[in-house]
Amino acid sequence: MTTDASAQQTAQRFGTLLGVFTPSVLTILGLIMYLRFGWVVGNLGLPVTLLVVLLASSITFITALSASAVATNMTVGVGGEYYMISRSLGLELGGAIGIPLFLCRTLSITFYSFGLVEAILAVWPARWGEIPTAVPQILAAAIIITITLVSGRSAELALKLQIPIMVAVGVSLVALAIGALADGTRTPEFGMTLRTAPKGFWYVFAVFFPAVTGFTAGIGMSGDLKDPRHSIPRGTLAAVAVGTAVYLLVPVLMAVTTRVSPEELAVPGVVWTSIAIFGSWLVFPGLWGAILSSAFGSVLGGPRVLQALAADGLAPSFLARLSPSGQPTIATWVSGAIALAAVALGGLNAVAQFVTILFLTLYVTINLASALESLVGDPSYRPTIRVPWYVSLVGSIGAIVVMFLISPWACLAAVVLESALYVQLRRRAMRKRWGDVRAGMWVALARWALLKLRHHELDPRNWRPQILLFAGDPGKRAGLVRLASWFNQDRGVVTVCRLVVGELEKLKKIDEMRKEMDHELEEAGVIAFPEVDVVPDFEDGVISVAQANGIAGLHSNTVMFGWSRRKERLESQLRMMRAMSYARKNTIIARLNWAHEPGSEKRIDIWWGGLQNNGDLMLLLAYLLRLNPGWRDSKIWVRSVARDEEERRLQLESLANLLPETRIGAESEVIVKPADLSITEVLHQTSADADVVFLGLQEPEPGEEAAYADRIIELATGLNTCIFVRSASEFAGRLV
C-alpha cells in the first residue's frame, strides 16, 4: 500500500459514460422500478402516478443541478458529495454528512445484496420445497464478498461489468413495451383506488421516492474521473433525464396493457413477468443486473468517502492508503466487512428506511451548499452551471418534506445524529451571549463573527477587495465611491476616508464631518463606511491610516485613489503605492471619464502584461464590475501586444488555457506591434471605444516617480475611464 501521489496517478481515470452516467442511471432504474411500479399504478391510477413521478424527479433534478453547480466551481477530489459539501460549507458540516454517508452507502451493499437474493429466490423451483432459513443470508454474504473483492481489485472491472447490465435493463424495458402493446390496449384508470395502499397518496409517494435517489452514484466516483468538473454535471443530469423519461413511459405501458388487470397491478411483486414478452427470461436478468449494479455503486462510492474522511483527518489515516493501482483497497475491505457483519441482522427494513432518510439529508445539504454559495456570492464562485439560490432552496425544502413523509421518527433520528456529529467535530463551542433587545443580539453576533474571522485562515476562494478609498468629499466624488462599491458588490467593506491635515486638539467637528459624509453617501445610494482622520502630513497619514484600517480579521486589502490633475499628487500616490506594497495592500488609481451612452453595449478592455501578478487582479475586478446590474451586458476583452508572430502565438495559447480555467467569460486578442507605432499608440487605437480600460502599474524606483507619472498620464490621455491596478502580493486576487 502507498499514500503518495504516484498511486493516484496510476489509477484508471474514467470518463462521463463509464464513470458517472452508467452507475447513476443503473442505480435509478433499480429495485423499485421492477417490484413496486405496478403497485403504484394499480393504487393511484395513471394521472396521479405521473404526478408522483414528476414531483419526485423535480426534487432530484434540482439537487442534481445544485450538485452540478458546486462541482463546476471546483476541482472535485476524492469523496464526491462529502468533498463538495466540506469545501463549500466547512469541514465540520462535511464530516457530519460524510460519516453517515459512508455508513448508509456501506449498509446499502447489504440491502442490495438481500434484494438480489430475494429476486433470485423468486425463481426457486417449487419441487425443491421450502427455502432453508439460512440460504438468504449465505447467498447475501457470498454476494458481498464477491463484489468487495472485485471492487477492491479494480474499479475499472467493476464499472465495465455494468455495461452488460445496462444492456440487460434496456432489453427488459423493450420486452415490457412490446408485451404491453402486443395484445391491444385499454383505457387506463384515471382515479385513485388505493386498493392495497389504504394509507393514502403520501404513503405511496414515500414508497416510490427511493426509486429516484440513485443519481449521486456517479458523483461518488469523483476522485477516479479524468475531468470531474466536466463529467459530473453531464453524467448526472443525463442520468436523471433518462431515469425520468423511463419512469414516465413505464406507467403508461402498465396502465394501457390488457395482459394484466388493475387489480393485478396493485399486488406487490414482479408484475413485469406477466406483461413482457418471454416473461421471466428477459425481465429477471435486467432485475438482477440492476440490483447488482446498485450494490457495485455502493461498494465503489462508500470506500472513497471513507478515504476522503481519512485524508481530512476525520478517520484513521491508514484508511486513505492506496494500492499500487490507485484503489482505496483498505477502505474497501473495511466497507465490505461492515456490510458483511450487517448480514447477521437479517431483515433490515427499518434500517433501510433510516438509510433513505440519511441520503435525503445529503440532498438537503447539497442544495443548501449551492444556495448559500449563490447568496454569499464570493468572487471565486463562478460555476459554469448557474442555479438561482431560490431554486436550490426549493429543492432543499422538498427533500425535508419527503423525509417527514417517509418517517418522522427516522428523520428526527438522522437530524439528531448529524447534529451531534457536527457539534463533536466543531472542536470549539460557540458562546452565545444574547442581549434582551435586538441591538444586543446583533452586537453579540457581530462579535462572534469577528472572533471566528480572526482565527480563520483566509483562502483565495474567499478573497474579495476590501477597499479603503481616499476620496475626500464623497459628495463631490460620488462616481469614485460608486465604482468602489461596484468592485465590492455590496458584500465586502468599502471605507471612504477623508483626511484632514492639522492638529487633532484644534479640530472639534470630526463627528459632524463624519455624519455629513454618511448623509452624502446615503444621498448617492451607496453603502460605505465613512471615516474622518486628522493627520499632521497627508502622505504619511495615508500610509498610517491604511495600515491601521480594519478590525479583527476584516482589514482593508486594497487602497484606492481618484485621479488628480496635479502631477505632484500623482507622484505622491506612486510613492504611497510603494509603501502599500510593503504592507501587502493593493493599489487602484481610477481616472473616471464615462462615455457610455444608455442602451449601447459596454466594453471592458484589460491590457495583459503578465507581470507582477497584476493581470489576475485586473481580470477579477473586471468580472466583479460586470456582475453589477448596469454592467451585465458588457464584454470583457483581454488584450496583449506581441513583438512578432511567434510571440503572438505563444501568448494566444497561454490565454486560451487560462481564461476557461478562470470561468470568467472573456475574449482574448494579441496584437503584433507594427514597426511604425509605439505600444501606447497601439493601445489608444485599440481601446479608444472601450468604456473601461484596465492597465497594470509597475513600482517605480525611488526618485523615478515623476517619469513614471508622465508615462501613465500619456497612457490615460485620449481614453475613457482608466483604472490602474497594482497587485501587492502573489496571494491577493489570485484566481481560483
Task: Kindly describe this structure.
The longest helix has 32 residues, at 280-311. The model is unreliable at 1-10 and 428-438 (pLDDT under 50). The protein has 736 residues and is α/β, with parallel strands linked by helices. The chain has 28 helices and twelve strands. The chain is 57% helix and 9% strand.
Helix count, per DSSP?
28
Second CATH tier, the architecture of the largest domain = Up-down Bundle
Strand content: 5-15%
Can you list the strand order of the major beta sheet?
A: 3-2-1-6-7-12-11-8-9-10
End-to-end CA span: 33 Å
CATH superfamily of the largest domain: Amino acid/polyamine transporter I
As a whole number of angstroms, the C-alpha radius of gyration is 32 Å
Q: Structural class given helices, strands, pairing?
A: alpha/beta
Q: Share of helix among residues? A: 55-70%
Could you name the CATH topology of the largest domain?
Amino acid/polyamine transporter I
Mean pLDDT, nearest integer?
81
Described by strand count, sense and barrel closure, the largest sheet is: 10 strands, mixed
Give the C-level CATH assignment of the largest domain: Mainly Alpha
What's the number of domains?
3
Please report the total strand number as a whole number. 12
Summarize the SSE layout with pairings.
Elements: H1 5-10, H2 16-28, H3 31-35, H4 37-44, H5 46-71, H6 81-89, H7 91-121, H8 135-153, H9 155-160, H10 162-182, H11 201-208, H12 228-256, H13 262-265, H14 272-275, H15 280-311, H16 329-342, H17 349-376, H18 389-406, H19 408-426, H20 438-454, E1 467-470, H21 478-488, E2 494-501, H22 510-524, E3 529-535, H23 538-548, E4 550-551, E5 554-555, E6 558-562, H24 567-582, E7 586-591, E8 603-607, H25 614-626, E9 635-642, H26 645-662, E10 667-672, H27 679-687, E11 692-696, H28 705-716, E12 721-726
Parallel strand pairs: 1-2, 1-6, 2-3, 6-7, 8-9, 8-11, 9-10, 11-12
Antiparallel strand pairs: 4-5, 7-12
